[in-house]
Write a structure and sequence with these properties.
By secondary structure, the protein is mostly helical. Helices cover 57% and strands 0% of the residues.
Length: 110
């Protein structure tokens, strides 16, 4: 698909089973079952080929949406790291403090 430009091709592919593909496959399957129910056919037994087709289309769309999201987040991370590298004075390391220095002393009231 053309969603991801050529510079995104170097990213590792997402897993075949990811949350977007599973969710959209379920939506496709439920859509086919809802169509069967609206046509007064038995929802699970009739049109199994359409159920498989709708689930496959949902899986395909979810996979490519995950691929596009991975590319977008990688591009944003690259831009942010480049900005940090070019402006180190804006991102000076903070001094290390212990937890005891942060919290106030505890005095119970009785």
């Amino acid at each position: 698909m053309v969603l991801v430009p050529d510079e995104g091709k170097s990213l590792p592919p997402p897993g075949i089973v990811n949350r977007n593909s599973v969710w959209l496959a379920g939506v496709g399957w439920c859509t086919a079952m809802l169509h069967n129910a609206m046509k007064h056919r038995p929802p699970l037994q009739s049109g199994v080929h359409r159920q498989v087709l709708a689930a496959s289309i949902g899986w395909f769309i979810g996979y490519h949406l995950t691929k596009y999201a991975d590319y977008t987040y990688a591009r944003l991370d690259r831009d942010m790291n480049e900005y940090i590298r070019l402006h180190p004075d804006d991102f000076a390391p903070k001094e290390k403090r212990t937890f005891a220095e942060i919290v106030e002393p505890f005095h119970p009231v009785r």
